[in-house]
Amino acid sequence: MKLNFDESLSLIKRGTAEILPEKELEERLKSGRKLRVKAGFDPTAPDLHLGHTVLLNKLKHFQDLGHEVLFLIGDFTGMIGDPSGKNITRLPLTREQVVENAKTYQAQVFKILNPDKTQILFNSEWLGDKSAADLIQIAGKYTVARMLERDDFYKRYTSNQPIAIHEFLYPLLQGYDSVAMHADIELGGNDQKFNLLVGRELQKHYGQPQQVVITMPLLEGLDGDKKMSKSLNNYIGIDESPDNMFGKIMSISDDLMWRYLELLSFKSQQEIQQWKLETQQGKNPRDIKILFAEEIITRFHSLQDAKRAHENFANRFQKHQLPKEIPEIAVQISENFIPLVNLLKTAGLASGTTDARRLIQNNAVRIDGEKISDADLKIAVNTQHIYQVGKLRIAKISATPTSLRERSSKQSRDTTTDTEDWISSSRKKTRDSQ
User: How far apart are CA 69 and CA 120, in angstroms?
Assistant: First the structure.
């Protein structure tokens, strides 16, 4: 991408929350040196959603400008658990959970980033071999008083909520990643600001040039309120089916649409401003959402999938037809029956049994096209029906016996060794390329 300095700086600044310090960023860009741009992701869940891609998009901007992108998978720090924004101690993940989740990240990130211009790194490479003495030495670079300056730690401390010692280690180890990687720039969500600044401080202690910190806003979920999260069921997963993605994007509010365009679209700011002007002059915002939905689905699937999803959406909501492709889900049960509310929760069509009961009581649930009003309904084993929840969620769900789940669990255990081998292989490829 051939851009002059002002255009490059404008592209980098697009959608950012803060750049600390901005003057240092400008100096490094003017140097003409290929910068090492770091972003870390702890594999705390198996799939990425559009909220994660806010950072990935910014990495792509740097990549398009010719800089070196370092995509860090926190397979070591993921076992500690990032306390950022938490009012309780986060439960650490097991090694098996971390490596299984990490396995899916590589394929997903390359739907945005150029694999030939991206280094995939794992922080267990340098943190896994640290001795207790090494960790004490790193811990000696920071004070408890400075840790308690962090907002979430301060609130928990002053309200007598417990803070585990390992939670203090998390920002130190994340900061040490920047030392090990010799990062020039680190990107993170604006809830990561403290951790990113710790990286600057540790680099100073280790005699390195301090990284520039760039924070990105947290993307609101479909509810337009809380940040996008799978646990809140307000997310759009990048591996979701095209039909699901299209329907979810069409459900966002007209106001939230502009936020999504700013942070997620690759359209130019001039084009987005033109769309705003057109809507002010009477154009239906729905038409803009359709263009945005097609752009996102093309990015993560294909243009053909995007056009088909648009057609299915039109048939479904304008002609009241079911989509041509309905996702199939198997739910294993140990008894002869399963409460409908539990089935909807397990299949992911409701965020919980309370949510499922509310949806049924509000006449938002259909089975094979028939509206359901009995919140205590039970579904028999060895049955298959089409379940619809609201206008957007639909699935063909099979209620199957527990024995199938037990076989699936065994297969999952058998893949653990393969996953460890995958990480070792990926590390070797990274070392060979350096």
Answer: 9
